[in-house]
Fold:
Amino acid sequence: MSERGALLVVDDDQDVRETIRDYFEHCGFDVFVAADGEGMHKVLAIRRVDLVLMDLNLPGTDGLALTRELRAKQDIGIIMLTAAGQVIDRIIGLEMGADDYVAKPFEPRELLARVKSVLRRQGKGAPPLGPPAEPHPEVVKMGGCTLDLAAHHLYDAQGKEISLTSMEFDLLHAFATHPDRVLSRNQLLELAHHREADVFDRSIDIRMARIRRKIEADPEKPQVLKTVRGAGYIFVSERRK
Structure:
């Protein structure tokens, strides 16, 4: 097994599958391929995979349904491969739990950067280089929940783990390490997305809605992660209450 990770490409276009496989194998990844959902399930039944590159327009069960199915059953990275104009599909895919999306046609180097980012947020792959972070608590209270920054886990008031996607954890990490401070969408994308390419701004709002359903007593009237109209979001820590 490669130390860089194992990828599964699910795309009915043979040229796309072979292009991604050749490039990522050259970069040191293990790469498996499938043309549809049936092929995807066969690979996952016998191989450990860290991340799936999922085309949306697949024969049989489409990529959106497969994304929802994977997210419900496995802790696995998912990057959607979409046509350039499929904005609505991107929104739906993110709502179903995909970690990121890349529009076709794409540059292999951009796709590599996205893959590394998702794997890094999952605690897999090589860690990013950079200056040491300022000290911060490893366990942070967020309303009735507890976020363990070291273990990448969120627990409810009874100590039961709450499932998070890697992007959801990164957003919570950004808030936990910047308490009582308004963070704009651009700042959140920079802190949580780790990429330079132009991003889909609405993805922050979609994930915030998902996170609030997990940590707020009343997601419609959030008290932990509040919206600051025209500015962004703020994590209201225990010391402010």
Remarks:
- Helices lie at 14-26, 37-46, 63-73, 87-95, 108-121, 166-176, 185-193, 202-215.
- Residues 80 and 101 are 4 Å apart (CA to CA).
